[in-house]
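Dear Dr. L.,

I hope this message finds you well. Following up on our conversation about the binding site, I have prepared a predicted three-dimensional model of the protein together with octanoyl-coenzyme A. For your records, I am including the exact sequence and ligand specification that went into the calculation, followed by the structure tokens. Please feel free to forward this to your student if that is useful.
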Amino acid sequence: MNGEFVRTARDGAVTTLTIDRQPALNALNPKVLEELREGVREFTADRSARVMIITGAGERAFVAGADIAAMSKMSVREAGAFADLGQSTFSAIEDAPKPVIAAINGYALGGGCELAMACDIRIASEKAKIGQPEVNLGVIPGFGGTQRLARLVGRGKAKELIFSAVAIDAASAEKIGLVDAVVPPDQLMSKALELATLIAAKAPVAVSLAKAAIDRGLDVDLRTGLAHEAALFAECFSTNDQREGMDAFLSKRKAEFKGK
Ligand code: CO8
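The resulting structure of the complex is given below.
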């Protein structure tokens, strides 16, 4: 797609989605969110796209939050609708049946941190600054921050970050598990693409079911999660890719997965 604020590009089986609203440090207004949702929908529908990278345009920001100028004029009802739009957009990323990697190139604040947390894996530039500064503005995180941050880094750290509104650097974010890797700024996109390409070469249905098993498992008790895992493991045996993967191993050749 090539929207006003969101564009996508393809490199083999990897789609890169870039949010480009640089005068406002890529802040999320309703139009940006709608275009982002459309980009995610297209990625999900395109069978030939296996992994998506989400990043921000320019050197300064991944996304510096929801648009404060737009929010400053909202009524209670409009604020609720805006929170719903952001949440449904980010849930579409989390629920996409394929992996999504956040390449955090700079500020990831408020809605930007919430967007990154809805992705499966987060790689950050050494220059990234990450946080939930909403209480500076008299509001709370509304695009999933109170829920996903606590699940990712634990209740205490989430409360510390949200109550204090302090933005932390990439190294500190890696230490608490808020990001998964930190790389020099000029290597961010190549590292993200390297990981995406590695994942894209694996059996797509298996990767998709692994994502579902991990995500649903974290929402339920261990025994329910294990039962779900066993069911999805069995489901892999209904795919050609399971036969191909195992045949290829036993024949000492490289597997060619078709995603079926
Ligand atoms: N919204 C709108 N515009 C923004 C935003 C934003 N979140 N962030 C930056 N901008 C704009 C600035 O207003 C400025 O515009 P202009 O040049 O026209 O004055 C431009 O981007 C550049 O920003 P600065 O001049 O401030 O650049 P600095 O380098 O001095 O500072 C910062 C960079 C530290 C990132 C600073 O811009 C900042 O603090 N931004 C706001 C960060 C923030 O508070 N984000 C959280 C917003 S709240 C949120 O995300 C809630 C999500 C849930 C919503 C639920 C809906 C109901």
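In brief: The chain has a mean pLDDT of 97.

With kind regards,
A. P.
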